[in-house]
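re the bet — no i am not wrong, look at it urself. input seq straight from the record:
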Amino acid sequence: MTTDRWSQIEFFVQVADEGSMSKAAEKLDMSNAAASRTLGALEQRLGARLVERTTRRLWLTEVGQAFYQRCTAMLGEMAEAEAAARELTLQPTGVLHVTSSVSFAMMHIAPALPELKRRYPELSVQITAANRYLDFIDAGIDVAIRTREYENDSSITIRKLAHTRRVLAASPAYLEKHGMPRHPRDLSSHQLLVYNLAKDAHVLHMSKGDEHVDIDVVSTLESNEGQVIVAAGLAGHGIVVQPLYIIYDEIVAGRLRPVLTDWVLPALTINIAYQSRRHLPAKIRVFTDFLIERFETLQLEHKWSYIQPC
């Protein structure tokens, strides 16, 4: 492939990613006139219109969409080939795009970054904190931290980081005022603080040996962010339902007290997910291995699997 053809394809993909000719030109250090000529030459060579524009927006034609998919795959293969060639002699470089929940990013990714930077000084990390699962391709994600056992897309690889219990806990002040529940049915007379993006957020499936109960939850407060739920619990507003990876430190410090510890809620599995590739980019491999090593060294799965009864 000639340099001109390669440049045309790179520019077209940048236009599609940015949704703007001018932004793409700026990213590639091109003048607007050169950008227009580059796209025009590509469309003329293909004999097809790839992009439609108005003064307000830009979009890909049907042909442009199909061409974009093939071009991104080709550019990705080229990037992987270059990364594989550099891997034996160079440290991982570039930007690693990571997504996780807000709580996980704050509590377990951000504190790990200084050591990651020390080991791999040429690697930069961009974190997108979101309490929803972003699409790898559309969001440009390299690695995602997710709490589900499998991916619907067979092209996604998952590696387990840790299992974590989900527990109920409340502040000492709340329990002093409202009392300690002794059975899941007692929760009907308590104020519950619910993370509403959880699976079956309004039903607690609890078990104790061979006994199983399903408790319908009427919440006092709901949020799509675990930190909001925890803050409300610390302030004495009710009983939180949260995984230990979020509230372990609060329980150890005594700011929250676990309740109904002899009853078990379904556990969560925290996974690292990334697109399956023949040649995994070094930046994904080293980050994944680093995070798994860190979790093992800190014995986080062990800490998050057991709570001492109060």
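see?? The longest strand covers residues 156-164. told u. also The chain has three domains: 3-87, 94-163+269-303, 166-266. so pay up
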